[in-house]
Design a protein that fits this description.
This protein is an alpha/beta fold and 225 residues long. Helices cover 40% and strands 16% of the residues. It has a single domain, classed as 3-Layer(aba) Sandwich (Undecaprenyl pyrophosphate synthetase), CATH 3.40.1180. Strands 3-4-2-1-5-6 form a 6-stranded parallel β-sheet, with helices on both faces. Bound molecules: 3-methylbut-3-enyl trihydrogen diphosphate (IPE) (2 copies) and magnesium ion.
């Protein structure tokens, strides 16, 4: 049986979901937020310890201003939900650059991180204003600021945004098969699962299907002769 501690998801396809239904893109994002709720509850049920969700990339700022504004509001609303009773076992942590995020989001983030810090079952790692190249660059700069002149892999590991086990499984929805600047360092030995299902349609059934596919994978870590 493969170990399954950490699942990371690239939540993609909201815009295409809306387009297929002749709806504005924001409707896709709105239904996508419901999928977030569904996968968090499924992760809890399945005993997963860490769930990383790619919610907004450092490149996503280049989208139209109205879409960015809508996404930020939706994120604030979604964050508020994490203090509700059904998330009492979920601890929220943040991966990304604070610089560039609206003050409203930062305040909300800090509030929810503090309120959920004692929760034990599932760590929800929200990747927001996140880019993996930026994460590695930020780590290197933190190490240099400590006065080090020679850097080990361990130094980089310790200075990433969060000190979490590497993802065992990375899921991307919507049929795209790329990382789009997600977890470049941490993905070294992750298993990948790509599905054509668009994020707003990705609920418990699809998540369980991905977990089943993962359970059948043979992980090698380079150590099989
Ligand atoms: C994912 O859906 C949400 C974010 C990247 C914020 P998209 O908005 O990328 O949807 P598509 O890829 O255009 O369908
Ligand atoms: C990746 O999706 C980022 C998130 C899911 C937050 P994008 O839709 O931004 O990625 P590309 O542009 O298709 O590579
Ligand atoms: Mg997309």
């Amino acid at each position: 049986m493969n170990k399954l501690s950490h699942v990371a998801i690239i939540m993609d396809g909201n815009g295409r979901w809306a387009k297929l239904k002749n709806l504005p893109r924001k409707e896709g994002h709105k239904e996508g937020a419901n999928s977030v709720e569904a996968v968090v509850q499924t992760a809890l049920k399945e005993g997963i310890s860490v769930l990383s969700l790619y919610a907004f990339s450092t490149e996503n700022w280049a989208r139209p201003k109205t879409e960015v504004t809508y996404l930020m509001q939706l994120l604030a609303d979604t964050l508020s939900k994490f203090t509700e009773d059904k998330y009492k076992d979920v601890k929220l942590v943040f991966s990304g650059r604070r610089l560039g995020l609206p003050k409203k989001i930062l305040t909300k983030l800090d509030e929810v991180i503090k309120a959920t810090a004692g929760n034990k079952k599932l760590i929800l790692n929200l990747c927001l204003n996140y880019g993996a190249r930026q994460e590695i660059t930020d780590a290197v700069n933190k190490i240099l600021a400590q006065g080090k002149t020679k850097i080990t892999e361990g130094d980089i590991e310790k200075n990433l945004y969060q000190n979490l086990p590497a993802p065992d499984l990375i899921i991307r929805t919507s049929g795209e098969e790329r990382l789009s600047n997600f977890l470049l360092w941490q993905a070294a030995y992750s298993e990948f699962y790509f599905t054509k299902t668009l994020w707003p349609d990705f609920k418990e059934k699809d998540f369980l299907k991905a977990l089943l596919a993962y359970s059948k994978r043979e992980r090698r870590f380079g150590n099989r002769g």
